[in-house]
Amino acid sequence: MMARVKAMACAALAAAAAALAGCSLSKHIQRASDKTEAQYAAITTWDKLPVRTISWNQAIAMMRTSNTEIMSARNNITHADRETLRVYTDLIPTASYYAYMTKSLEDLAHQWNGSDLTNNFNVNFFLPTLTQLPYRVYANKVSAFAAVKAMEGAEREAVSKLYQAVRKRELAMKLRELDSQAPADGTATATQTSAEQTKQDLDYHQSVARLLGNAEARWNILPETMPRLNWNDYRHRLARLDQLVLLKFVLDLERARMEQYSIALNYLPTINTSLYSPSLFSSSGGTYSGAFLSSKDTRLNLSISYTIDTRLSIWNRYSDSKERYALAKKKVEADMREHKSKIEALRSSVDEYEHWKSYMAKRMDFVRSSPAESAEAALERNKTILDMKRELIKQEQEAVETECAIIVEYGMPGLTPMKFD
Asked: Residues with Cβ < 8 Å from 105, sequence gap 6 or more?
């Protein structure tokens, strides 16, 4: 009869807990939905945001603090550092407290006392496998180093995109200015319609806000405060890999080599050590006891084991890892060859653009210095110069892609790499 009563009580408690959980869930969902809906209603549309002008350095500082890609990379560094530290913190003993009470149902109404509670306090020592410790230390250091380099790469990508947005905005404004200088006789066609200009402005503000990680305003970055790329500064660097790009190839190989090494460690004997003692402190029914870490009650255990690979499972895994490492080397070699081809194509593209720009500048000087025999000829000359300026800007817009590729490859001139504390 008592067992049946207990079963019914447990069922009732379970049903009540389920009902409470369902009610709690719906309340939490509704509360979160109301909060999200209020947040959505409070969002200001782009046309109502204030316009704020900042310098390039101010934009970089804001981006380093709030850009989501850079923040994610910074979090990865923190995680990698914690994993590196965990190799050593695992050596710290852990402390645990355990207490329980047992009492019949008819005695629950009676007053409790200390003799009804049993509790224990323990200190546990865990020592890692000695043969695995050097590998863990090295592997975690590699991961931490790779995380730092990944953050530097994320910053280069963000800087390149920000540079692209500002440069294209600057060139678009120059085209608009040229359109405003065109004669109002119908001989010139506007580069953009009003609707296209509005959309371009919106795209610019959205792109910059996303890169800066700040949508509190329509940010205008002053182009004149931004460093300019000088092709001659990069020409001598194209023959060699940038250090950040080089390390990417090196780390790809190192990951494959470490996998091979981690499997080979299984052929070493396993050495385990542990420090054991009874409960440091315990009490039950008013009776106290404990080892208090006396040398008589404490034991140091040391075990050495070695598993013979009779089924060749470790050997097969090791052979597979060797093949993957060989493939990784071939892949890195192929990637480097492809990378070098892209750099050569980049060099050719910039050289062609520089030669064309030099030719156009000389041609403009020639047209500008040519005497006009009549008013009509003067107007035609001015129109020709205006068209040539417009073509120069359009070609410069296309060259921005090349400039961004250079920034991703070698970094932004005058920009100090971000430090992580």
From this structure: none
